[in-house]
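Onboarding guide, step 5: your first structure request.
Type a short instruction followed by the sequence, for example:

Predict the 3D structure of this protein.
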Amino acid sequence: MCDQIKLVEQAGAELIHVDVMDGHFVPNISIGPPVVRSIRKCTDLFLDVHLMIEHPLDYVEAFVKAGANNITFHIEAADAAGAVIDKIKSHSIGAGISIKPDTPVAVIEEYINRLDMLLIMSVEPGFGGQSFMRGALDKLTRAQQLKQSGQLTGLNIEVDGGVDVDNIKEISRAGAEVIVAGSEIFGAPDPAQRFKELQNLANF
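The system replies with structure tokens like these:
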């Protein structure tokens, strides 16, 4: 794990996106706070922790203690999104909301001026290696419009799912400012080279 992190860190990655899945909100189970803690020991890069779990409010503190710099939760999994944002921000780290492909951007508008990250999922959350869903492009554009109209300079618009060398330029042009790529990088023969290729195409 540390070796892979160092590869992309040396290639120029600015953050590490960490997917957390509980087997309930999504049909898969992945890492928890102990693994995030281990990742924290591997790198000083910004840890962008994406909670694909039910009842995210109950887990904020554990992931803060594990070393998260930003915690993003799903609006679909939170009974009281405002309370989750408050809990995250009480620890002086970034707070983000993620929306699934079928969820419109409109549902997060009441919270957008309190967010540090807005994550647009371009695949159904839960499994890597899925194809990019083009409906995310319109969502990215809408999110960017909201950011500009509200002068929300502290908000980062992020996309996750199905990113590859064929679509990353279009994704960037649509308004993405943080682009997550997993399978496309680590499934390549030379992950560092693939990262640099994606970075150049995105013009970041």
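Each response can be followed by summary notes, for example: Helices lie at 2-11, 33-42, 60-66, 81-89, 135-149, 168-174, 183-186, 191-202.
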